[in-house]
Specification:
- It is built from 16 helices and eight strands.
- It is mainly alpha-helical and 426 residues long.
- The protein folds into four domains: 66 residues, no CATH class; 85 residues, DNA polymerase, domain 1 (Orthogonal Bundle), CATH 1.10.150; 185 residues, Orthogonal Bundle (hpI Integrase, Chain A); 46 residues, no CATH class.
- α7 runs antiparallel to α9 and α12 crosses α13.
- The protein is globular and about 80 Å long.
């Protein structure tokens, strides 16, 4: 914005087009906003955009200087709520993770469907905490868990926070709402014997190496799928987590795979020692992939060449396949219920049980900070609690026994008896 002008302006993107948004006051001192389209697409040269903006600003300045100029625009706060959400999503698209964006898109679409039915023609300024609360209540009644309702809350809160930041509304419509409390998930764990049983049922399965990597390294599903052969350094014996594969569902319900180098946090990008067992499996996998590629010939799918976790025909395993196939095998083979993600927790629990420090586990799992690891696994650190119990017992000993020993010692002390007799005489 340029404060030297009698008005302020910014550029914004809405529906894939660049706009110039003017902020000014009319004759009565009432604050107004006006959106002027540039007719330029979102992806255009900066030079072209600046020239167009200067042209629009100059024209607006002339009109603003005319005392007979009448602002015939509708204040942005009175715009249809759909237009606002479209503008918000367009603005944040490049700043957030792809999965987060599509999640926000689905949530706002469902919120708009609710508003169209219950509050037709509602504008941005009409939305209040009662309307949002009613909507969240319908989600509770529909059977959604607290953690899912919380996702709705966070998405809508983020949108209206943006409206506040851009001064499109004066008051946040969700300030009076309480954040839904997500129930704590009690993760399941497999011990050493259970994991060996799991490995046995996945022997020869298309997901065999996926299961082993998850158990040994505690990698996330998307991290395992993102592994390419260039992440394996057989010479220096390292494995590097530097990509992820995500599966997103757009507003039309179409699922698409994306390979991303933008990981969850900086700590997620990490290099770990190559465990000999996993190294042997990787070498065997590479050989079998070469054989399958020759067998399938031209029918072999080469879209994801270089990736490790592929089917015999070359197609990349998908996140949904991993979740569904893992659940199916566990269920049909009579194993203890376990989610695929719980292999990550099982890895952490085994490390803790064998006295690996919590800080080392944080770095192994790729958590962004120590508190995340501590909050998740502190209840499993039983060996440390045993050590604490032994230490305090050693320092303080048995209080009752110590007290009795002191009494016996005092009774048998001849000097103490004489002292008491002298006190009586005095």
């Amino acid at each position: 914005m340029k404060a030297s002008l009698p008005f302020k302006y910014i550029t914004a993107v809405k529906n894939g087009k660049h706009y110039v948004v003017f902020d000014y006051k009319d004759k009565a001192g009432k604050r107004k906003r006006k959106w002027v389209k540039t007719d330029l697409p979102e992806k255009c040269s900066k030079k072209l955009l600046n020239a167009k903006v200067d042209e629009i600003v100059e024209r607006f300045s002339e009109d603003f200087g005319n005392e007979n100029n009448k602002c015939n625009n509708t204040p942005l706060s009175h715009q249809p709520i759909k237009e606002f959400f479209d503008m918000w999503l367009s603005t944040i698209k490049t700043d957030i993770a792809r999965t987060t964006f599509y999640g926000y898109q689905r949530i706002t679409k469902r919120f708009l469907e609710y508003l169209d039915k219950e509050y037709p023609d509602i504008t941005l300024s009409d939305v209040n905490h009662n309307i949002v609360q009613e909507y969240l209540n319908t989600k509770y009644k529909s059977g959604l868990k607290n953690i899912s309702v919380k996702q709705y809350y966070l998405a809508l809160h983020s949108a209206f926070s943006y409206a506040m930041k851009m001064e499109l509304i004066e008051k946040h419509p969700m300030d009076k709402l309480t954040v839904p409390r997500a129930e704590r998930h009690e993760a399941s764990f497999y011990n050493k014997d259970e994991l060996n049983g799991l490995f046995a049922v996945f022997d020869g399965d298309v997901m065999e190496i996926v299961v082993h990597i998850a158990a040994y390294y505690g990698l996330r599903r998307c991290e395992i799928l993102g592994l390419r052969w260039d992440a394996i350094d057989f010479h220096n014996k390292t494995i590097t987590i530097q990509r992820k594969v995500v599966e997103v569902c757009d507003e039309n319900g179409k699922e698409t795979l994306y390979v991303e180098t933008r990981l969850k946090t900086n700590s997620t990008r990490r290099t770990l020692p190559l465990i000999p067992h996993i190294e042997k499996m990787l070498i065997a996998k590479r050989k079998s992939d070469d054989c399958f590629k020759k067998s399938f010939g031209k029918a072999y799918d080469t879209e994801y060449d270089g990736f490790i976790c592929r089917k015999p025909n070359g197609k990349l395993l998908t996140p949904s396949f991993i979740t569904n196939h893992f659940g199916y095998i566990v269920r049909t083979r009579g194993l203890k219920h376990l989610r695929f993600h719980d292999l990550r927790h099982s890895c952490a629990s085994l490390l803790l049980a064998n006295d690996v420090p919590m800080k080392a586990i944080q770095e192994w799992l790729g958590h962004s900070n120590f508190s995340i690891t501590a909050n998740l696994y502190s209840h499993l650190e039983y060996n440390a609690k045993i050590a604490s119990a032994e230490t305090i017992a050693k320092v303080l000993g048995d209080a009752k026994s110590n007290s009795e020993s002191e009494e016996i010692k005092a009774t048998n002390d001849p000097h103490k008896g004489k002292s008491e007799q002298q006190d009586l005489i005095l």
